[in-house]
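Here is a typical protein record:
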Amino acid sequence: MDRNTNNEEESTPKGFKQSNILPLWGNERTMNLNPLILTNIQSSSYFKVNLYELKTYHEVVDEIYYKVTHLEPWEKGSRRTSGQTGMCGGVRGVGAGGIVSTAYCLLYKLFTLKLTRKQLNGLLTHCDSPYIRALGFMYIRYALPPASLLEWYEPYLHDEEELDVKAGGGQTMSIGTMLRQWLVKLEWFSTLFPRIPVPIQQKIQKFIAENLPPQVVTQRQEPVKYNERPQKDWPRGDRDNVRDDIKKDFLRDDRRERSRDRSPDRKYRDDRRHKDGDYKRDRDRHSKRERSRSPVRSHSHSSSSRDYKDRHRHRR
């Protein structure tokens, strides 16, 4: 009797405590964050002054509610990666820092609190802000073992709650879409998530292929051009109708050619041609007028009139 009661008392608290403690994976000091991001977090005045005063889990959750507006590691326009190549490129997050985002500062603050399973579930099911939920999912992606990712994410892969993940806005996605992306891709804006071992990655991809339908991307259909219409297979008995159809197409194309000839460019060329002809006629008329008024012609005319007067003077 006493032995059974002692076993129940010993097993229940111990089992509860063990289930409530979350196992960490990887580097327990850096949370597997990029070294440049971690250095900027630890050296930022927001983390050292403002977040240092927050001592409890609920205070941090309230800070997330009021301050987080996106999920990028850097604030908009604070990081310059132009001209960098190789390991100093934008994806690796090495070589050029910036102003680290509030979201990542609060994410690391949650890591310093060493969340329990109950607290983490409270983040994932929080109803006040989608960013509180998103930081809980990001905490799982960075700090917990990769083998438990699918166990944590599976109930939320169809979640339709939306949030804007880009600094400055402009990239809205649902939580389910974001989680599916985190399971199959390492890149997240200008940083990388921890790498998932190959056997676990294969299981995740197999689960997604079997249980999640591929997202259908609707493309805008362009209008079909008149000369790219599908050809019809006409039977032999309808040859006359085929010829009539060909005639109609020929007449339609002829009308298009005529309309092109009457285009503004053609009209401009015709007007220019008429103006050039008028200019040539005016120039010829002007040159004839100048020839009639030339001094040589007037001199010859005056000399002939003088000779005429001299001849007729003797007759008088």
